[in-house]
Amino acid sequence: MMELAYAFKDKFKFALTTEVESIKDLPGYKPDENVAFWVLHCKEGKDDKKPCSATKYRDSIDLLSLARFLHVIDVEPMLVLPGSDHTFYEQKDMHVAAIIADKDNVDEIKLEIQAFLSKYRGYVGFLIVDKTKFDVANLGFKQDIETSMVGLKLRGETTWQLMPEFEMPEAFLDSKLQATVLPHREQVTSDMTDTENDPVQEDEDPLQEEDDEVAKTVRVIHGRSLDHTHVQRLTEETFTAQTQSTESLVVMFYLVFDVRSKASLLSFLEASRLLAADSLFPLATVECHDERDLCASQNITSYPTIRVFRKGKKYFNYNGVRGAKEIYSFVKLLLADAPVKLNTFEEAKLFLDGKIPKGFDNVTDVSVLGLFKENSDAERKAFRSAAKKLRGQFLLGEATGDAAEAIAKTIPNKLQLPKVVVHKRNDEFRPIQVCPPFTESGMVAQCARDGALVMFPELTASSFPKMYEESIPFLILFTHGRDNNIYRTVGALSADVNVPNVNYCWMDLDAKDGLAMKILINYYDNQIPSTPSLNLVDYQKQRTPALFTPALSTLFKQCVWSVTEELPMGEWKPLLEGYDFLKLMDEGKKAEDMDTSVTNEYGVGFDSDGNYLEKKTDEMSPDLEAAEKEIHDELLRLSRFYPKRGGGSHVDKTDRVHPEHTEL
Amino acid sequence: MTSRVLMVLVTMVGCIQAADKYWDYIVVGAGPGGLQMGHFLQKAGRNYVLLERNSVVASFFQKYPRHDKLISINKRHTGKKNTEFNLRHDWNSLLSDDKSLLFRHYSKLFFPQRVQLLDYMADYQKKLGINVQFHTEVSNIRKETNATTNKTVFLMDDQNGNTLKCKVLIVASGLSKPVEPTFEGREFTENYSNVSINPDDYEGKTVVILGRGNSAFELAESIYGSTNFIHMIGRSRVRLSWATHYVGDLRAVNVALLDTYQLKSLDAVLEATVHEEAMRLVKVKDRLKVVVNMNGSEISLQNYDHFPMRELYDKVIVCFGFQFDNSIFSSSLNITKSEDEEDKFPLIGYDYQLRDVEDLYIAGGASHGPDYRKSSGGFIHGFRYTGSRPHRMLEWKYEGVPWPSISILSTDLLATIIKRINEGSGFYQMFGMLGDVMAIRSSGEEIEYLEEVPVNLLDRLSEITGHSYDEVIVLILQYGANYSGPDKDVFRSDRATAQPEISYKSNFLHPVFFHYRHLPTAEQMSSKTKYEILPRPDHMHHIVEDFLTLWDAPSSHHLPLRRYLETVLDRDLRTFYASDCFEMAMLHQMVPLYCQQYYLSGRGIVKAEPLFQQS
Q1: What is the annotated signal peptide range for this record (chain B) (predicted)?
Q2: For residues A5 and B156, which has the higher predicted lDDT (pLDDT)?
C-alpha cells in the first residue's frame, strides 16, 4: 500500500484506518472483512453537503491489480454512442456494459445509470447506445435488439452476456461480476510454480499432479476426436498421390501421445478453419503412431514437424510459431503468386498499401516491390528467384516499365530503376526501405528480411525471439499507449543510424494482459515507478553500451529511466524429484530379508532367536480363554476324533518314508 | 600357340576358383537365423554367402515339428496399423522392408503349418535376393593366420573337396541334432525325430515319454486318444509358459495331457532324472520295464511295492529336444564344451561371438545360450533381432560403420521415448536383452538415441557402437522378478499393479529405465545378482504395467516419466506457451529448456481452443 501511495501520490490522497466507525457507511462495507479499499471521488462531488461518492475495490489485494485499478478509476465512467470510441473501455482492459437506448429515452437511461455508476468505477465502463443513431452491429449486437436491454462483456472476452428478462440492471451486473472477483486473464507467476488444482485430477500425490501448463490444457482432448473437417488426414497409401497432385501441401507430422503435438494440432486445425473461410484447403496431417513407416521415411524425429510439399517434393519445414494466426498467414503467403504481377501504376500503388492482392491486409504488413525497366532481365530474374525463396514469409510484387517509373517517382530520393523497395505499413518511423543495387537473389532476400524489421516495434511474445537473436541489449519504453511525445521521440531515435546499437522497442502499460505493468514493477524491485519509463535490459549478458549520446541524454531527461541490474538467473530445476524406486526397492528388500531370515533359520512360529513363539494367549482375555477351554473339554468328552494331546500316532513307519509321488 | 596359352590360363584360373573361394562373410546354414543375417548383409552390400547343405532354405521345417503345427503365434490382426507394433505379436516373420514378406499373408491359422513357414522362408530368400549356395555341406572349420599380414582367415571344406574361406564366420546351423539318451537300455527307445506319428500305431499301447518340453507334449497330445495311458517323465517341474513368461516352456496349446493327469484318467506326469545311471530300461519279453535308481544305484526304488512305474510299457519315446552340432568345427579350434543345461548351446558371449574363437559368431536358434530361459532368443521372433543387432556390431567392427543413432533435443526426449515404448518390437520380444540407449550430451541439452542395443554389453558400449559415451539412460522392457514359481498363483488377485507410485512392483512386461552417470564397468556387469538385469543405476524408473500395454496415460505414465527425466537431467522439462516463455525471458537471464530450444528460436506454441468432432 505504501508503494501504491508513493506511485500515485500526484493523483490521490491516501488514507489508512483501523476505525470501523469511519468506514461503515461506505458502499459495500462488510463487517467480517479484514482488509478493504475504497476510492472516494471528492473532487467530482459538487454538493458539499453530501458525502463524496465512493467505489469499493473488489479485485484481489495485490500490487499489480491495485495499480491497474487506480489507472482506470478516473476514466470517464459513461460514454454515449454515437459520439465516442466504442472500444474505449476494452482498450483499458475493463468490463463493458452496454445499455441500448433510442433517441427518446437516452437521457432517462443516463440518469438511471448515474444512480449506481460510482459503485462500478474502475471495473465497468458504461456505453449508452442510441440505436437510432448508432449501428449496434458495430458492437456485435443484432439489429433487432430491444431498447433498455443491458449487455455485459467481461474483460478479455469477446461475447456479450445479455440481461435476462425481468431482471434489474444492477442485480444483473452484480451477479455476473461476482464470478470475476479474480482477474479473468491467465495468471502466471514469475517462477511458474503455481499448481492450480486440476478438477480432473483427484490424486493427492503431488508427483501425479500435472504442473505443465500445456499438458494441462490439452488434457481435455485425451481420447476425444477433434474436428478435422478442413484438413486431409494422410496415410502411407494416400500420401504420395495427395502431395503430388497438390501444388502446395502443408503437412503436420505429429504424435498422438505428445503434449506439444496436441497443442500445435489445435492451432493447426484452427488455421484450417480460417483458411477454409478463404476457400483454401492446403493443410494435411499425418499421425506418426499409426503411420509409423511414413514418418520414418520422412525422417521425422521431432513432434510436431510441419513440412511443406510442392508437387510431391519436400520443400522446407515451417519453423515459425505454432499459432493459428501465424500458420494461417504463413500458408496465405505460401500460396500467393511469387511475385504478384502488377500491370499499372494503380495496381502497384494498391499493392504497396496492402490492398492487392485482396485478403492479405490481415496477413502481412510488409510489401516487397520490385521495379524494373523493360530491359532489366537479369535483375528481374534474380528478383523472381528471391520471390520463390521467400514464399511463406513475404508478399512480393513486380512492376515493369511505365508503371514502375511512375511508382519510383512517388518514393523520396527519386529511384533509378531497377530497384526493390520494402514497404512496412506497421512501421511509422521508417515505412520505406530501399534495397541497394543487386545482382542475385540472395541479396534481394537479405534486403527483404532486414528491411522488414520494424524500427520501433511493440515488444510482445511474438516479436521478442527475433530481437533476442540479435544478442544486443533492449531499450524498452514502458508507456500508456503510443499517443504521446516520448513514444514519438524514442521511435524517431530508433530510426537514426547514429544511435547505439540496441533493440529499441516499447511495451503498452494499457495492454489487456497487464504484462507490461507486471514486468515494469518487477524491474523496479516490486515498486511502481512513475511512467513512462525507459529501461535498458540485457537478457543475455550484463553489458552497458555507451548510451550517453547527446540525443539519448536529452531523452533520458524526459522520463524515468534506468539500467536494469542483473536479472535473476532462473535455473529452472525440476520442481519435484521423481519417484525414488531404488530406495523403495531397498526398503522392500530389507523387510523381505528380515522376514525370510526368521522363517529360514528356525521355521514358521519361531522368533529370530529361535525361541518358540508362545500362542497368542497373552492377548486373549481370561474370559475367552476360559470359554475356549470349556469348548475343548466338551469336544474331548464327546468326540473320539478330536486328537488327544501327546497321544500316540497310528501312522506306520513305512508309510512315513513314502516318497512323494511327484518328486522322486 | 596363343590359343594354347590361353587354354592353360583358363584352366589355372578355374582351378584357383574351385579350390579357393573367398567371401568376407560366410553364413553356415540358410534357416531363419541364416536368412535374417543374410538379409542384413545383403542390405549393407557386403561380400557374403549363405552355405546350405540341403536344396531348400529352412530345411529343418521339412520335417519338424513332426505333427506339422507350429506353436509360434500368427496374430494377423491387432487393430493397429503401426508395422513395428504389429511385429510385437508376429512370431513368425523375419525382418525386412518388404511388406509382402509378413507371415500373415502366408497363413490364416493362428498356429500355422510348417509347410507354410517353408513357403514363407523360400519367398523371403528369393524376394530379397539373398545369396545362398545350396548343396554345400561344410566341415573341418579351422582358422589360419597369415604370417606376414598377421590377418586371420577361416577355412572350411565342402563335400566336394573345395576349400572355402572368409574373414568372418557366422554359424547359423540351428539346433539340428536330436539329443540322445545315455542310459542303459537306450537301444529299446524310439526318438521324437523318427517315431511314428500315426495314432493307429499306438492303439492299446502303454507309453512312456521321456522329456518335459513342447515336443514331448506335442507327441502326447497326438496319441493319447489311442493309448492305454501315457506316463511322462522329466527332470524338471512342469513349467507352464504362461506362468514363467518363457515361450520355450510348456505352451498352453500343448497341455492337454495335464488335464487327463489331474482328472485321474490314467495319464500321468512325474519328475525323475532320466539320464546316465539314474535309470535303465530292461526288456521283459516284448515289453519294457523302467528301473529307476535314486542317488546313483544305492537304493532301488523298485523295492517299494507301490513304485509308480511298476507296470510294463510297450513304447519308450525320447523327446529330449535338439542340440547344436559342433562336429563341423575342427578340433584345432579348441572349442570348450558348454556347461549349459543339456549341453544344447555353443558357448558364446553377449556379443554372440564364440568364447574361444574370435570372428566366429553364432546366429539363429543356437544363439539362445545367453538368454536361455530368460528371453526369446531361441525363437524366430527373438533371434530375428539378436541376429540383426549383432549385425550392427559387425558393421562397426569390420566395416567402420557406427551403430545408427539420431540426435535429438532433450525437450524432444519424452515424446521419443513414449513413441518407442508404444511400438518398439525388438526390446519387447527380446525383453531384458535389448534396450534403447540414450546418451546424454551437451550437459543435458541433447540426447543421442540408439535403438535396441545388447544391454549386457553396456560396459563395452563405446567399443561395440563406435560412439563414445559415458552418461546414459537405458530403457528396457521387463517382467517383474520372482513372479512365478512353486506355490505361486499367477492368477492371484494382486498379480497386477495399477498405481504409478509402486510401479516397480509391476509383474507384467513394462518399461524400466536405468540412469548411469558413468557406464558400468565390466566388474559391475559381472557381479549382478540373479534378478538384476543391469547393475544398480544412479536413478531408476518403472512405468507401471498396463492392461493394454499402451502407455498413453498422461498422469499415470507420462508425468512420472517426465519427472524421472527431469531428475536425471536436473532440468525443468515442461512445455510452456509462448506468452509464458516471453514473460520468463523478460524476467530472467535463463529460460526453461523448452523455451530456450523452441520459443526463442521462433517455434513457440500459442494456445488454441479445441473443436471436437460432432458425433
Answers
A1: 1-18
A2: B156
Give the pLDDT confidence of A604-621 residue by residue, as tens digits. Answer: 444 445 445 544 434 445
Cβ count within 10 A of residue A91: 14
Range of the domain at B379: 20-175+324-396
Closest Cα in chain A to B269 = A662
Specify the DSSP element, H or E, that contains A332: helix A324-335
Q: With contacts defined as CB-CB under 8 Å, which chain A residues touch B410?
A: none
Q: Are residues B241 and B331 in the same domain?
A: no
Do residues B432 and B385 both lie within one domain? Answer: no
* Highest mean predicted confidence (pLDDT) among A520-534, A567-581, B294-308, B502-516: B502-516
Q: What angle do CA A257, A258, A261 make, to 5 degrees?
A: 120
- Chain A contact present for B580, CB below 8 A: yes
- Average pLDDT along chain A: 80
Give the rounded percent of residues in chain B with a pLDDT score beyond 90: 67
Q: State pLDDT tens for residues A393-403.
A: 999 999 999 99
For residue A411, what is its C-alpha cell? 518514393
**ipTM at complex level:** 0.91
Do residues B289 and B376 share a domain?
no
**Would you state the pLDDT for residue A195?**
42
Give the pLDDT confidence score for residue B339 in this predicted structure: 60
Nearest CA in chain B to A291: B82
Q: List the 69-128 stretch of B: residues with Cβ below 8 A of A.
A: 80-85
Q: Answer yes or no: do A464 and B586 touch at CB < 8 A.
A: yes
> For the residues of A113-177, what is the DSSP string, one character each?
HHHHGGGGTTTEEEEEEETTTS-GGGGT--TTPPTT-EEEE-TT--SPEEPPTT--HHHHHHHHH
Q: How far is CA A240 from CA A251, A291, A297, A312, in A?
A: 12, 13, 12, 7
Contact with chain B for residue A201, Cβ under 8 A: yes
A578–chain B Cβ distance below 8 A for any pair: yes
Cα distance between residue B589 and residue A542, in whole Å: 9
**Secondary structure (3-state) at A213:** helix
Residue B244 lies in a domain: yes
> Per the CB < 8 Å rule, is A664 touching B292?
yes
**Nearby residues of B532 by Cβ (< 8 Å), 6 or more positions away:** none
- Residue B144 maps to a domain: yes
CA distances from A448 to A360, A391, A451, B89 (A): 18, 12, 5, 55
Interface contact flag, B608 A226, Cβ < 8 Å: no
Q: The domain that contains B148 carries what CATH number?
A: 3.50.50.60
A281 φ, ψ (degrees, to nearest 5): -135, 55
For chain B positions 353-412, those within 8 Å of chain A (CB to CB) are: 406, 408-409, 412
**Does a structural domain hold residue B200?**
yes
B511 touches chain A (CB under 8 A): no
Does A301 contact B at CB distance below 8 Å?
yes
Q: 3-class SS at A268?
A: helix
Cα A200 to Cα A294: distance, rounded to the nearest angstrom: 35
Q: Which residues of B touch A663 (CB under 8 A)?
A: 271
Same domain flag for B309 and B338:
no
Q: Between chains, do B81 and A291 touch, taking CB under 8 Å as contact? A: yes
Please tell me whether residues B207 and B164 are part of one structural domain. Answer: no
One domain, residues B538 and B423: yes
Last residue of a domain, one of B351, B378, B396: B396
Which residues in chain A have their CB less than 8 angstroms from residue B554's CB? 210, 215, 219, 222, 259
Distance (Å) from the alpha carbon of B72 to chain A's nearest alpha carbon: 25
Contact yes or no for A289 and B419 at CB 8 A: yes
What's the pLDDT tens digit per position in B444-501? Answer: 999 999 999 999 999 999 999 999 999 999 999 999 877 777 777 888 888 888 888 8
B333, B366, B396: which is the final residue of a domain?
Answer: B396
Number of domains chain B contains: 4
- Residue B419 in domain: yes
Q: Which residue, among A196, A239, A293, A464, would best test binding to B if mutated, counting the most B CBs under 10 Å from its CB?
A: A464
Residues B315 and B459 in one domain: no
